[in-house]
Design a protein that fits this description.
It is a single chain. The chain is of the alpha+beta class. It has one domain. The strands form two sheets. A two-stranded antiparallel sheet has the order 1-2. The chain has a two-stranded antiparallel ribbon with strand order 3-4. It is globular and about 30 Å long. Strand 3 (76-80) and strand 4 (84-88) form a beta hairpin. The chain starts with 6 loop residues before the first strand and ends with a strand. 16% of the residues are buried. Helix content is 55%, strand content 16%.
Length: 89
């Protein structure tokens, strides 16, 4: 019988990868001016091109900071000046 899913600390690998994409995207927004420009011009397309899941795109567009912080975890803090960014503590 094939293994369909492996758990990584209570999450599936797919869930972990999706969360990692969001984390990487938001942390790169803090250092990549070209990414910030693309994001400011077309948030959804920029996040899709980066591999961010539709669910996480919706959270960012709707500015659901509490849920985003929950996904990022305690090692990160978010800043939401004009563009939401994540910083490793």
């Amino acid at each position: 019988m094939p293994i369909r899913c492996i758990k990584v600390i209570g999450r599936t690998i797919k869930g972990y990868i999706m969360s990692r994409q969001l984390t990487d995207f938001l942390t790169n927004l803090s250092t990549d001016d070209a990414l910030v420009d693309a994001f400011n011009n077309d948030k959804e397309s920029t996040m899709k091109a980066y591999g961010v899941s539709d669910k996480h795109i919706e959270l960012v567009i709707n500015k659901n900071y509490g849920e985003i912080q929950s996904i990022l975890g305690a090692d990160y803090t978010i800043a939401n000046n004009s563009v939401i960014k994540a910083f490793k503590k």
